[in-house]
Amino acid sequence: MKYRGRLAPSPTGLLHLGHAQTFWIAWKRARAAGGSLILRNEDLDRARCRPEFVTAMLEDLRWLGLDWDEGPYAQSERLELYRAAFRKLKEGGFLYPCRCSRGDVLRALQAPHAADEEPIYPGTCRPSAGKPVVEGAPLNWRFRVPDGREITFLDGGFGKQTFVAGRDFGDFVVWRHDDAPSYQLAVVTDDAAMEITEVVRGADLLVSTARQCLLYEALGWKQPAFFHAPLVTNENGVRLAKRDDAWSIRARREQGMTPENVRAEFKPPPEPGRLFS
Ligand code: GLU
To answer: What are phi and psi of 143, to 5 degrees?
Structure first.
């Protein structure tokens, strides 16, 4: 089967060194395999996405020396596809409606959690077996995870990964109360529809990949291979975020750095030479 990879930036800020490294790895792997690369603009977050960031991300990718064979496709133009996947999950009995806000979930947990990782849903709205589902707006639709089940996948960069449903992640939202798909549902639907054979993404998404394995299974779709790229951290050892403008590709470019200088800053691969050779 021919290799098909993708670059999937979100236009919610400027791309930083971590994105540069992930996209560089994705590009290298697609080119080394003689495959194609698809550019997908992940612009579903209406509150945070901005057109000027779309322009900036395309410019920065080109400046880094990356090219693509298809796209850009915009997720905001593909809503019907996600809606069809949502309906299939709902009809398959995998989902339940939930009225909890993020604040409710956090209060119910009363425990600190990693700021960017979805808190484990305490199951407040989870229907007990056989109990009829009461619908009403506004509500989120959650995927009910099989508690205790081990989800295993072989990662191309980090090797075998195992996560336990209900312990490492809980019931997650697939359709939001503002009538939009969640990241998990949109990305799985697109990767399947675009016939992506290998997903290259940052290691911050390892747990999300485990959630997505459950979605592939529930939807009856073939799972791609996964390759997670090491995370780039700032001077305090904290993973780069969109707000770290000083670490943006743009800032480096304005300082007169070349794409080669930027690549020299990438984190060493887990196995010498494996990722960048
Ligand atoms: N759009 C996501 C991001 O910019 C990446 C999603 C993915 O690779 O699955 O973080």
So the answer is: -85, 130
**Paired tokens of 47:** 């509150």
DSSP letters spanning 142-178: EE---TT-EEEEEETTTEEEEEEBTTTB--EEEE-TT
Ligand 1 close to Cβ of residue 212 (< 6 A): no
Q: Tens digits of per-residue pLDDT, 67-109?
A: 999 999 999 999 999 999 999 999 999 999 998 887 777 776 6
8 Å CB contact between 230 and 253: no
- Residue 259 CA, ligand 1 centroid: distance in Å: 22
User: Residue holding tokens 């980090």?
Assistant: 158
Phi, psi of 31 (to 5 degrees): -70, -40
Q: d(Cα 69, Cα 195) in Å, to the nearest integer?
A: 14
pLDDT band at 36 (very low <50, low <70, confident <90, very high): very high
| pTM, to two decimals | 0.91
The two tokens of residue 19 are 């994105």
